[in-house]
Records
---
Amino acid sequence: MIHRPAGIVIGGDLHLGLEFITSEGVVEEVRPHTGLPEPWFASPAFVNAHSHLEYRGMQGQLKETDFFEWIGAIVRAKGEQTPEQVQADSLLAAQENRATGVALIAEHSDRPGSRAAMDSVGLEGPIFQEVITFLDPAGRQERLAHVAEKARLQAATPSPHATYSVDKHSLTELSQGEAFLSTHAAESPAETELFSHGTGPFAELLESHNSALPQAGQTPIEYLNRIGFLKPGRQLVHCCDATEQDIELMAAKGVVAAHCPRSNQALTCTPAPIRRILEAGIPVGLGLDSAASSGQISMFAEMRSAFRASCSRREPITYSQIWQMATEMGAASLGRDNWSIQAGSTAPIIRISGVDAIDVEDLIESCSPENVSWLDTA
């Protein structure tokens, strides 16, 4: 089957004048046009490197803009939902991910629903069943067993929710082995204050539940390293407050990162130092996070936010880098190679129509999920 788009995104750049041949889902050849091009653009499908499908029903419902207060609000909102609502929300979010061109997703799940939703729309990717033990540190073994059972039902992997929500013993146990794990880290100033000084709202919350505070005088990422969490096959989500030393440590340990700029902005977190993380050679994927904090499920809106967030730090990244984070680099960060349109590739391919473009900047700035459809490569 010969496909003649107006252009193909390869390596994060839009190449005009190319067509490609596929057979049974495999790209056989990419070559110059041999016929008239059609008015659409081809790209490897998008990769959502960090997601919470189950929070879709909370889109536009939470008004808190302070990170710590928002955490409390979402916990309260979760307590009011039924299992049927969680399943319906997960399915809707999965459908909207597919509609914006996502084929591969790294999902953080607390309540069952994500796996069935992902399977029903053809989304691939790992599910990290969140471990949260600070609410009852004395009963952590029971909580770990409960999470393990939920993980079994979803073909998921038990994984720590965040540096502040898992007790030290459980986090140490989870860090053993070579399983692909993910955790929220260095996301907010409140988290940084907890680990740097042992003070602030997270410290007060832990103390109210009789949970031990981490040793002061360190960053959240340094803490994860001392625990043994940092190693290849580990993903750190957000990294907004990552220091230069943190970034050097992440690079040395071979971890990957997920960047969620719209969520970070909505919850008044520091814009993440993504250019410095990329310059350190750390693979970064772009994550849509949850609709409760990021809003509409749209990879184009997330890419636009990634560019503006980097500019707000006066450390701009390029549109090409952003597209790579949303496609091939994001896939590589999740252990999927060859996520490109080149000979031998089996990555799903999307069509982007209804827009004139000469580069990926035009695509990012002009498009929405309505411009996306899926290419038949059989």
---
Amino acid sequence: MEESQIQTLFQNSKTFANTGISHSYEWRVEALKRLEKVILLYEKEIIEALRLDLGKSEFEGYVSEVGFTLSEISHTIKKLKKWMRPKKVSSPLIQFPCRSYINFEPLGTVLIIAPWNYPFNLLMAPLIGALSAGNNAILKPSEISVHTSKICEKIISDAFTPEEVIVIQGEVKETTALLELPFDHIFYTGNGSVGRIVMEKAAKNLVPVTLELGGKSPCMVLGENDLEIVGRRIAWGKFFNAGQTCVAPDYIIVEKKKKSALEEAIKNGLNSFYGKEVKSSPDYGRIINERHWNRLKHIIDESEVSYGGDGDKSQKYISPTLINADSSSASMKDEIFGPLLPIVTVENTAEAIEFINSSDKPLACYLFTKDKSVENTVVKKVSSGGLCINDSLVHLSSQTLPFGGVGESGMGRYHGRYSFETFSHQKAVMKRYQIFDILVRYPPYLGKLKIIKWLLKL
């Protein structure tokens, strides 16, 4: 699409935003219901597109993409009226008599840029937040997950007018043209390198941004555990979507004496999930494209593989792979984003925490332990976007918890009410009354400073 066409579409969106039509509760709920209706209509096509792009099974496609999105819509519709109410806050005594509250206003026209690993969920979930807050949106799906991007465009065109929500397909040229425009908010999910470009472009127009990035999310196995349960839960979280999840356990930290037993538990979990011939399992996904397959195969070739390590380039298949690793290993240099699981050994909890804190703050952190003292120590001493104790991935499914990063893993938050707040301007409102006036604030000031100091302390 030409830059001039993108600019025209943007201006049409801004014109619609300025009408205020989308500000009402009725429009917001009706827009969400339209989206829900069309998603249900195209459910089978969405699942098939995810299979073609990522080899996702119907179960994974529904649970992590379609079902997640429908649940988010349902939750938002139920809670929206409450979220939209002005939030009363206390007022300082010195301003008596007055009333203070926070009013939630739409930002306007927002840009949502989605990645390829969860190409439906990570486009629609932010859109739900944008619509709930009374905004209209321009969506840029990933050019890599081509089949899902096409069905997303079809869904949006059926559910909305182009002024309300529109999809712009394309690659770097189109994304660059979009980033030059003065949106009211930009929501980007992807890697840190592109995140920096998004933030730099946004800064030129003073556009606020939400960056949902990633990083190497550690998974600690410390103290007492039921290793069979632990191994199964780690294997599920890591190899769901063939490891192409921004919050997948990126590497394991385990005490040396427990390493062998944990490896066996993970293998047992994998065998129960996919059987001995993982490649033939209908439940195991595929790598998104050849470039990423080559990248992962290169890591395997430079690693000490303890389990798995095989692949088929023609099918974009790489088996679940366990790797013996330390801080200098090839698998520990960058986020893996694939079915490779390095295992690092430590002597104790203190060493595990030191290892994690020597790197960038991750998007997620996982801890498996029955030891309350270990749990309390990790909660206090490890900074991460989110922390999940005794499971993996599942904290994302909670609409009452914020999802977002910290430091290199991103900024901003969403899901449930947090999406509504992200796409709203929280306007401070103070209403004073004309019943009487406290004259101490007016000149002449002689003898009044002591009174003011006393009042400010109350």
